[in-house]
Amino acid sequence: MRTIRIHVELPLAVGLELGLPAQAGEHVARVLRLTAGSPITLFNGDGVDYPAVIQAVGKRDVTVRVEAAQPVGNESPLPLTLAQGVARGEKMDLIVQKATELGVARIVPLLTERSEVKLDPARAEKRLAHWQAVVASACEQSGRARLPTVLPAVPLEHWLRELPQDGALRLALLPEGTRRAGELRFTPAGGLLVVGPEGGLGNRDTAALTEAGFEGLRLGPRILRTETAGLAALAALQALHGDV
User: Domain residues for 64?
Assistant: First the structure.
């Protein structure tokens, strides 16, 4: 039987009776068509699943009672940050969704030399909220109880200036890269993986990355699209050094 998992941004504890937020309640009542007595699992990103039972379903609200707390231990031992050049349209949604399923710890949308997507402050705020919702939905499906962090879109140069010297391996996915996934050695700090947008990383981007200590990673002899490249790299790194 499939477990229905619902993300809520609320404190949760055993014995707590609460009303689901409007959007979650509508999904439970109108989309899933669950009724009183139905089991669901809530999570809020603290690493714990909270099995619950629906107490009542009204026209505008759903009340549930938390019955238990079950720690979830399925986070990857390899913390990876995907710094993705913002892609157009639904491509970025796909990248965010699948990166979450693959266990990424952090997603940084980057504005690079060849970025075709332009985000004014208002639009950037809306896109961030949308990507965070995509992450939550992907965690519901994949069983993760901790949500990857999604940072606001930032120019590549600004992001590089703020990077901590924490020992994380710095990699940029480049067709001319010389490093291979199998030969990498990660510290507990994990790694940073930069992927360009449509059209790839420009010369100015590559120079800035090299100056910041990034090495070129090459996956194979074929050039991958932006919506394929980062996901393929994450899958390879998780298979070789993580938990896939």
Answer: 5-71
